[in-house]
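Narrative of activities, Objective 1.

The group set out to show that a structural description can be obtained from nothing but a protein's sequence at a throughput compatible with the screening campaign. Below is one input-output pair from the validation batch, recorded exactly as produced.
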Amino acid sequence: MLSDIQIAQQAKLRPIKDVAEGIGIKEDELEFYGKYKAKLSDELAQRLQDRTDGKLILVTAINPTPAGEGKTTITTGLGQAMAKIGKNAIIALREPSLGPVFGIKGGAAGGGYAQVLPMEEINLHFTGDMHAITSANNLLCAMLDNHLQQGNELGIDPRRILFKRCLDMNDRALRNIVVGLGGKLNGVPREDGFIITVASEVMAILCLASDIVDLKKRLGNILVAYKYDGTPVYARDIQADGAMTALLRDAIKPNLVQTLEGTPAVMHGGPFANIAHGCNSVRATKLALKLADYTITEAGFGSDLGAEKFLDIKCRYAGIAPSCVVLVATCRALKYNGGVAKDKVNEPCLDALKKGIVNLGVHIDNMRKYGVPVVVAINRFYTDSEEELKFIESFCHEKGADFAVADVFCNGGEGGRELAQKVVEACDKPADFRHLYDTELSFKEKMNKLATEIYRARGVIYTAQAEKAIKEVIALGGDKLPVCVAKTQYSLSDDPSLLGAPTDFDITVRDVRLSNGAGFVVVYTGNIMTMPGLPKKPAANSIDVDENSVISGLF
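Output recorded for this entry:
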């Protein structure tokens, strides 16, 4: 069996100008990054602004496990399958972070015969968006420290600086550091730290900004510190917003690539869903809606994280609504939720599947709360037994949920025909999209709704630090903003060891931060880290390049 990268390297790509032409994009509306990828110009967005939107399809999943769910693979395969049944579709995805690429997960552009290409470039440096975001973030940090060094005219308290440096790499050694050492000429000593780029507020802002004017305004609104007198300091106060916007001038433009079968794919932005909002950019999604009859997008991790944030944050700010939610599940992952060890998930075990399928049931019920039709995509693996597949199908019947077995990993678009047809039918059904909560509710009321209705907790416990932070957020006007919960992706709870559908637990909030530029309040639960670490055997150990510059081991 060929690896993902071998399949990708054998594919014959179409020139990106031909892919663009197929969806009505003119060549002079492209900004080329080689032959097979391009940025979409502002002129294109302006030309299409009065065109009617197509249907929006959100792909999400059950809670992720080491066994894998294949959400991006299903998203890509569904886009290819739409073409097979004669539908005009485009997919809208996030850009991969280098952290997971070199960490545990490996490549993040789909898999098998449902991939987005050029795979190596997408997974490594792509068009430089991640680097631009990192640079803009760290410019703000440099200007902040320089302000301290040059007399601290604003009276910033070095002990109350909130904004951290970032790096698009897993590096636990940088979580907590001290800067400014080495004497007076080298800055003001203070505690600092790094977060991963995809968890930064600058990333969230890029993905929620409607245009470059909105981008600059949001960047200026970033809360960076407090003064000695307790008043807030924003990025605009140290005049960093203009230069940050200049660094992001090109990064704000969506990227166009293609799937193995030539389906157009817009990739832009890449916030993690466990520590950020987990959605690709508003600009990319809204542009895709103008270019095709069906836009298929995905949100990170399970529906309790990415989908909830897509529906309650992104859709709210963008003024968009999905016509259908596709919920991805696998036999392997459901057996893992039922107690089967990672190295045994390929073996048939109906008892474990029966125990673990409750996780799928909770996610179906949660998505229905948003008033949108739900279709379950059973992502087929070659090890799945017919008995196991039939059990999942029977469960979906009992839940009254539409479903289809998808074999896009092995068969590309052809293996997703049934799923594509079910999704088209779901998009034609009446929908009454609604958010889970009204932003006029208090912060604790919003958090309680998320905890009890999505995570299924008894309630919420707040640490003393969290209570203090909530008062500060309210004082700055953040009480009426949406809530972005940083929580483990592996469980509906805030404890990664509680699999399936846990009950009788509380969500513990240990801290709360205002992402004033992004426009939401970040809630830190459990032991979630904003800078991941590498595993004992990182994926980077297996990645290599030969004398002909051919990469291997990427996935």
